[in-house]
Design brief:
Methane Monooxygenase Hydroxylase, Chain G, domain 1, 4 helices, rod-shaped
Length: 216
C-alpha cells in the first residue's frame, strides 16, 4: 500500500515536471521573437525560476526511485517475494518504468543550452540597444548641427545681404567721388584758364607803359 502511494506521488510529480517543461519550451519559443532587452531579461528570470522548481522536483523523484530500489531489495527477503517471484517482477517493472520515464524527462529537459542561447540573445539585444542609442545620439547631434548650421546660414545670408547693401552704398559713394573728381578737374581747368587770362592781362597792362617809355 505504501509502495502504491509512493508511485502515485511520483506520478503526480511527473505531471508537475511535464507542465514546467512545457512552460520552459514555450518561454524558449517566445524568446526567439523578443527584441527588447527588458523583455528578454524577464523571460530569462522566469525560466530560471522554473528551472529551480524543476530541479527540486527532479531531486525528489530521483530520491523516491532510489528509495523504491532499496525497498525492493528489502522486500525480496520476505517469504514469497524473492527474486523472480511475481511480486518481485511487478515491483521491479514498476521501478524500471519510473526510472526510464525519469531518464526520458532528463533527456527532454535540455535547458542548459537553451538558457545559454537566451543569454547570448539577451546580450545581443543589449548590444543592439546600445548601438541604437549611439545611433540615436548621432542623429540628435546631427540634428543639432543642422539647426546650428541653419542659423549660421541665416546669419551668413543676413551678413551677405548687409554686405551687398554696404557694397551698393560703397559703389554709390565711389560714383559720387568720381563725379566730384570729374567736377573738380573741370573747375581746376577753368580756374587755370582764368588764371592764365588774368596773368596775360596783367602782363599786357604792365608791359604796355614800359614799351611806351622805351620809345620816348
Amino acid at each position: 500500500m505504501n509502495d502504491l502511494l509512493s508511485v502515485q506521488h511520483i506520478e503526480k510529480e511527473f505531471d508537475k515536471l511535464n507542465k514546467l517543461i512545457r512552460k520552459l519550451q514555450d518561454a524558449h519559443e517566445e524568446s526567439k521573437s523578443v527584441t527588447r532587452a527588458a523583455a528578454m531579461k524577464a523571460i530569462k528570470q522566469r525560466m530560471e525560476s522554473d528551472v529551480d522548481e524543476v530541479g527540486m522536483i527532479a531531486r525528489f523523484i530521483k530520491a523516491k526511485i532510489e528509495q523504491l530500489d532499496k525497498e525492493n531489495l528489502t522486500n525480496r527477503k520476505k517469504p514469497g517475494c524473492g527474486p523472480g517471484t511475481g511480486v518481485d517482477r511487478s515491483r521491479t517493472a514498476t521501478t524500471l518504468a519510473l526510472r526510464k520515464k525519469f531518464k526520458d524527462k532528463v533527456t527532454e529537459f535540455q535547458v542548459v543550452d537553451t538558457l545559454a542561447e537566451i543569454q547570448e540573445r539577451h546580450d545581443a539585444v543589449i548590444e543592439v540597444e546600445r548601438k541604437l542609442l549611439e545611433l540615436q545620439q548621432i542623429f540628435m547631434d546631427l540634428a543639432i548641427l543642422v539647426d546650428a548650421q541653419g542659423e549660421m546660414l541665416d546669419n551668413i545670408e543676413t551678413n551677405v545681404s548687409s554686405a551687398l547693401d554696404h557694397v551698393q552704398s560703397g559703389n554709390k559713394a565711389l560714383h559720387n567721388v568720381k563725379t566730384l573728381q570729374k567736377k573738380s578737374r573741370k573747375w581746376m581747368c577753368w580756374t587755370l584758364i582764368i588764371l592764365l587770362i588774368v596773368i596775360a592781362i596783367v602782363l599786357v597792362v604792365v608791359l604796355t607803359p614800359w614799351q611806351s617809355l622805351k620809345g620816348v
